[in-house]
Amino acid sequence: MKKPTDVAIRRLEKSARGAAARAYAPYSRFPVGAAVIGGSGRVYAGCNVENASYGLCNCAERTAIFSAVAAGESSVKAVAIYTPTALPTAPCGACRQVINEFGPDAVVISVCDSKNRIETQLSALLPGAFGPGDLA
Ligand code: THU
Predict the structure, then answer these.
(1) Could you tell which of 17, 24, 28, 82 is best to mutate to test the pocket of ligand 1, judged by most ligand atoms within 8 Å of the CB?
(2) Strand-strand pairing, 107-111 and 43-47
(3) Conformational region of residue 10, where left means phi above 0, alpha means psi within -120 to 50, and beta covers everything else
(4) pLDDT digits over 92-127, tens only?
(5) Relative to the CA of 27, which ligand 1 atom is closest?
(6) Share in percent of the chain as helix, strand, coil (round to 5)
(7) 50-75 burial code (b ≥16 CB/10 A, e <16)
(8) Which of 7, 80, 96, 106 could cross-link to 12 by cystine, CB 3.0-4.6 Å?
(9) d(Cα 39, Cα 52) in Å, to the nearest integer?
(10) Cβ contacts of residue 10 below 8 Å, gap of 6+?
(11) CA end-to-end span of the chain, whole Å?
């Protein structure tokens, strides 16, 4: 799969920033925004959605990926995550596993409120991943 262009990545970051404003995070007070580029090239955004039953909280990355899949996408080329922090935040372990399901070769970008950023690959964040192929 072709790597997204710099312009596409910038657009993705902007979408992730915008999504954080819609976070429902009254318990952690830690809003997160995410956006993904689906196989079609379309962008899908998501935010964290918490619950009074804390274990049901859903991360921004998974909201964005589930939204992409619900819209008909079957793969993810890139994921951007925004947190309103001084340092960028990497996706949690559960989200790495979910990204792997649809984007084992995805680019993963974390941005924040400073110039600091992380640009990496899912395969570097989740080496030796268990995935769909292991069920064959
Ligand atoms: N959170 C995310 O949305 N993405 C991550 O990768 C890490 C954590 C959310 C979950 C919870 O709503 C809040 O941040 C604090 O953990």
Answers:
(1) 28
(2) unpaired
(3) alpha
(4) 999 999 999 999 999 999 999 999 999 999 999 999
(5) 12
(6) 35, 25, 45
(7) beeeeeeebbbbbbbbebbbeeebeb
(8) 80
(9) 34
(10) none
(11) 23
Q: Per residue in 38-76, pLDDT tens?
A: 999 999 999 999 999 999 999 999 999 999 999 999 999
- pTM metric for this prediction: 0.97
Answer for the pair 79, 61: CB distance below 8 angstroms, yes or no: yes
Closest to 89 measured CA to CA, from 52, 59, 129: 59
Angle at 77 between CA 42 and CA 92, to 5 degrees: 110
Smallest CA separation from ligand 1 atom 4, residue: 59
- Looking from the CA of 80 toward its CB, the CA atoms found within 13 Å total 25
Cβ 125 under 6 angstroms from ligand 1: no
Check: CB of residue 43 under 8 Å from CB of residue 67. no
Task: Name residue 124's amino acid.
Answer: A
Assess contact for 106 and 98: CB atoms under 8 A: no
36 three-class SS: strand
